[in-house]
């Protein structure tokens, strides 16, 4: 491959990641205990009691970068080269990348728009992520590291998260549910802006920290929140635990919707 073409492909991966599709394939093998390969080349037509069955499920991951006018094998090879040249980490397949969600607890390769076959893609954990990401417990991610801006939704789902990292902006919705683990996050700093809804369910969250703007509903009813930090604007409703009633000053916060307290 010419160097200029390789640079163009790398720039494409830098900005848009690469799309992929996972195909689920099931193979079933039936083994006949009385089958003699030297005497009979045909499958033995016995009953279910005459053989046992082995069933195996496989996930086959294929890159979808047809605009590059390369075969899947060529595309996978250039993806492996891209990861090595960009990060210094050598991989052998895309299947391997799907398992490399973190290195030393920091995000490495992320699936963006997970579950949306038409839009999902893999990308390195660059400072700006263009799409929806969900951080799950089995990803092994303890901090969001150098991610600064997410142009989409962010979901924190049962993660043993220790830090929001450098994250300042979430353009879409943010749901923060680390509840099955002791996330040890007591405030959301340095986060400043959430463009959509923010729903939190946490026993450790005590303050919103540096968060100033929530574009739609802010739901903190399932938290032990003690103060609202630097919050200035809520574009929808504000739901709070009853323990905060008459204990927080809402006069300096613009709330476009209703303020409600819940047990």
| Stretches with pLDDT under 50, minimum 5 residues | 42-52, 57-61
Fraction of helical residues: 10-25%
Helices and strands, in order, run as: HEEHHEEEEEEEEEEEEEEEEEE
Strand order of the largest sheet: 7-9-11-13-15-17-19
Count of separate structural domains:
2
Which structural class do you get from the secondary structure elements? alpha/beta
Number of helices: 3
In words, what does this structure look like?
The chain is of the alpha/beta class and 263 residues long. The protein folds into two domains: 1-89, no CATH class; 101-263. 14% of the residues lie in helices and 33% in strands. It contains three helices and 20 strands. The protein has helices at residues 3-16, 72-87, 94-99; strands spanning 18-32, 51-64, 102-103, 106-107, 109-112, 121-124, 128-129, 133-136, 149-150, 154-157, 169-170, 174-177, 193-194, 198-202, 213-214, 218-223, 233-234, 238-241, 254-255, 259-262. The strands form four sheets. The chain has a seven-stranded parallel β-sheet with strand order 7-9-11-13-15-17-19, with no helix packed on it. Strands 8-10-12-14-16-18-20 form a seven-stranded parallel β-sheet, with no helix packed on it. It has a four-stranded antiparallel β-sheet with strand order 2-1-6-5. Strand 5 and strand 6 (121-124) form a beta hairpin. The longest helix is centred in the N-terminal third of the chain and has 16 residues, at 72-87.
Write the layout of secondary structure elements.
Layout: H1 3-16, E1 18-32, E2 51-64, H2 72-87, H3 94-99, E3 102-103, E4 106-107, E5 109-112, E6 121-124, E7 128-129, E8 133-136, E9 149-150, E10 154-157, E11 169-170, E12 174-177, E13 193-194, E14 198-202, E15 213-214, E16 218-223, E17 233-234, E18 238-241, E19 254-255, E20 259-262
Parallel strand pairs: 7-9, 8-10, 9-11, 10-12, 11-13, 12-14, 13-15, 14-16, 15-17, 16-18, 17-19, 18-20
Antiparallel strand pairs: 1-2, 1-6, 3-4, 5-6
């Amino acid at each position: 491959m010419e160097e200029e073409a390789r640079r163009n492909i790398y720039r494409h991966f830098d900005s848009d990641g690469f799309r992929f599709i996972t195909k689920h394939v099931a193979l079933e093998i039936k083994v006949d205990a009385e089958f003699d390969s030297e005497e009979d080349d045909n499958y033995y037509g016995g009953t279910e009691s005459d053989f046992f069955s082995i069933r195996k499920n496989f996930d086959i991951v294929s890159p979808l970068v047809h605009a590059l006018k390369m075969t899947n094998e060529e595309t996978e090879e250039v993806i492996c080269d891209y990861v090595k040249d960009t990060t210094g980490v050598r991989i052998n397949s895309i299947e391997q990348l799907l398992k490399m969600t973190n290195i030393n607890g920091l995000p490495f390769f992320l699936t963006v728009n997970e579950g949306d076959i038409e839009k999902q893609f893999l990308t390195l954990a660059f400072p700006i992520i263009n799409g929806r990401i969900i951080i799950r417990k089995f990803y092994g991610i303890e901090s969001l590291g150098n991610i600064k801006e997410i142009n989409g939704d962010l979901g924190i789902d049962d993660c043993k998260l220790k830090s929001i990292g450098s994250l300042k902006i979430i353009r879409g919705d943010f749901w923060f549910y680390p509840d099955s683990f002791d996330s040890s996050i007591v405030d959301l700093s340095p986060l400043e802006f959430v463009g959509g809804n923010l729903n939190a369910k946490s026993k450790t969250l005590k303050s919103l920290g540096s968060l100033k703007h929530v574009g739609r509903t802010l739901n903190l009813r399932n938290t032990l929140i003690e103060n609202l930090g630097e919050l200035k604007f809520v574009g929808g409703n504000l739901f709070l635990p009853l323990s905060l009633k008459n204990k927080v000053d809402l006069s300096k916060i613009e709330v476009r919707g209703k303020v409600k307290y819940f047990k």
